[in-house]
Amino acid sequence: MDFFNTLIVVLDSTVRLSIPLLFACLAGLYSERAGVFDIGLEGKMLAAAFASASVAAVTGSAWLALGAAVLISVFFALVHGFASITHRGNQIVSGVALNFIAAGTTVILGQAWFQQGGRTPSLGAEARFNAITLPFAEAARDIPVIGFVYYELLSGHSILVYVAFFMVFATWWILFRTRFGLRLRAVGENPAAVDTAGISVAWLRYRAVICTGILCGFAGTYLALAQNAGFVKDMTAGKGYIALAALIFAKWRPVPAMFACLLFGFLDALAIRLQGTPLPMVGRVPAQFFQALPYILTVILLAGFIGKAIPPRAGGVPYVKER
Amino acid sequence: MSTPYAKLPAWADYGLIPLINLIVAFAVAGLVVLLVGENPLRAAGLMLEGAFGSGRNIAYTLYYSTSFIFTGLAVAVAFHGGLFNIGGEGQAYIGGLGVGLVCLTFDSILPWWLTFPLAILGAAAVGAGWAFIPAYLQAKRGSHIVITTIMFNFIAASLMVYLLVGPLKPANSMAPQTRNFLEGGQLPKLNWLIELFGGTVRSSPFNLSFLLALLCAFLVWLLIWRTRLGYEIRTQGHSPKAARYAGIGETRIIIITMMISGALAGMMALNPVMGDQGRLQLDFVTGAGFVGIAAALMGRSHPAGIVPAAILFGMLYQGGAELAFEMPNISRDMIVIIQGLVILFAGALENMFRPAAQSLFASISPRSMGVAASRSGGA
């Protein structure tokens, strides 16, 4: 029973830790499926986290904060679109640039506005997204196994967590069951065909990067207003890149993306849990190994040792209409 | 990547367009300064003063530039081969391991001028080795080099933390760093070089690896434009199909290019580890690997452009540190913004002002537009 309880607690923190990854991963899915590589997920998340924390600190409203985060993140996404769709610039270079701009601007503005060394003021409960207790969770708590799972694992998360899981299925539906989704996937595989059909490649790709911006806004807000109570310098700490890794791991599909993010979140939770405790058979595993594991797994996957990850065919290639 | 744009005269292509891009980047950075409530012109003045105001400041500027020359060259060599090595940060970090191990082994028995070549070899070998795996995976298994090198940055960081809090830390110490190197593991300073020109430098980290960086810049020029291998690298970068048709082994070129790139990035570690701190410690790279991307883009992947670009960024680093004293609202993170803006405008948006410039040139002298020069460099 003790082991079971520990497992549930670890799974609970798995969920918490994988939500920012999940939002960012789904965000990347829209952009990359439309043929625009985006390594700027990290920067968008960071900018969104800062925007939401600042607005929450000033207005005290978590929902206004979410709106601001989405706006800023969409703005970054549009700059990326402007460079890579309109001006046919190198998408990787543009992503790298936006990551730096976000990393620097958040600290500079944070310091200038709040004078706390680049952080934003610590937020009270009313300005954050707090845990919601699902109906009957308290009552069901004492029911063995099922009740405990319900109470610990399913209940007691912020609303954004449920939104994230809903978005997995929404994304699947949009991509595979709507006309917009079909065109979005087509423009990432063969933009010339989409163009021939009389549909604007640029406008379609712009809509895709806007979707990316919106979801990155959610990712950043979750980090600043649900997982933490405010913005700290570099708080994304490479999560944008892990999300990218998860996206490749999931071969650019929404439901596997969810499992990939949960796996990476689980590794993170495990690393925290196992800090310093020896494992049976292997002995003490350094925490750094767990930290590096998502990256190592991605490299192995990319090398084609666990199935082959084939990116959208037109990914990273700017579309030139007239030759 | 095909460029659908017509050609400009070479001086405009290599001088005017980068200059316009740079000016726009700084103008946007100025807006951020305004947003913080400071005067951008005064900030620029303070920054210049901080970078070149005294012999000591110049020495610091050149110390930072040294690192950026190495990483800029690393990114540029990969660019020529059509590869985007975003892993300079990790290769430099791991390169520090090569420097550290050589210094820890030999610093008590050899003088510095014997340790130095060994440390160069160590740094280059370890950096090249760290770049070899992504290169091999790209060449043989088709995994995207950008993603793999990003992953290797994180793996390098984890590995170095593990080594520095564990095996490499002296038993009686708490700080995550190696023991201090003895005399044989420290590079001589170059302060006399500045004093030669009349500056006074009491102490600075400016050291011998600056000359090594300049030598590397020359060697990279030699390699890319004056050797058969360089020709093959450029062919591969321009057109992999043409390279294949010409019988140039794709696998071989990708791996060699990336290993040269990794070696250059690895050698960057000599500057802070052996030249300044005299020990291996956490996070000594401090973003130099990424500044290399900006320097390479700004310098158009040519050593003659990279060295001034690296000095510009060295100036921003040093000037930015001094600026932070005067204007507490502007910390060194300002440089990160400028760096990002330079990458954005000189890299991703490099073609933004091209159509305007072209129509301008076409209206002034239509004849100069007739002759197509070779394709511009960059990614």
Helix- and strand-based class of chain A? mainly alpha
Task: Note the run of SSEs of chain A as H and E.
Answer: HHHHEHHEHHHHHHH
Structural class of chain B: mainly alpha
CATH topology of chain A: ABC transporter involved in vitamin B12 uptake, BtuC
Unreliable stretches of chain A:
none
Average residue pLDDT of chain A: 85
Q: What is the beta-strand fraction of chain B?
A: under 5%
CA radius of gyration of chain B: 21 Å
> Helical percent range of chain A?
55-70%
CATH top level class name of chain B: Mainly Alpha
Q: From the 3D coordinates, which CATH architecture of chain B would you assign?
A: Orthogonal Bundle
Instruction: Sum up the overall morphology of chain A in one term.
Output: globular
CATH class of chain A: Mainly Alpha
Model description:
The complex is a heterodimer of chains A (323) and B (379). A two-stranded antiparallel sheet of chain A has the order 1-2. Chain A starts with a helix and ends in a 21-residue tail after the last helix. In chain A, α2 (41-59) packs parallel to α4 and α8 (179-189) packs across α10 (201-227). Chain A has a single domain, classed as ABC transporter involved in vitamin B12 uptake, BtuC. Chain A has helices at residues 2-33, 41-59, 62-86, 91-114, 137-140, 146-154, 159-177, 179-189, 191-196, 201-227, 239-249, 254-273, 287-302, and strands at residues 131-132, 157-158. Chain A has 13 helices and 2 strands, in the order ααααβααβααααααα. By secondary structure, chain A is mostly helical. By secondary structure, chain B is mainly alpha-helical. Chain B has a single domain, classed as ABC transporter involved in vitamin B12 uptake, BtuC (Orthogonal Bundle), CATH 1.10.3470. In chain B, 70% of the residues lie in helices and 0% in strands. Chain B has helices at residues 10-36, 40-52, 55-80, 88-106, 112-141, 145-165, 191-196, 209-226, 228-238, 240-245, 250-267, 270-277, 288-298, 303-326, 333-348, 354-364. In chain B, α2 (40-52) packs across α14 and α5 packs antiparallel against α11 (250-267). The radius of gyration of chain B is 21 Å and the shape is globular. Chains A and B meet through α3, α4, α11 and α13 of A and α1, α5, α6, α13 and α15 of B.
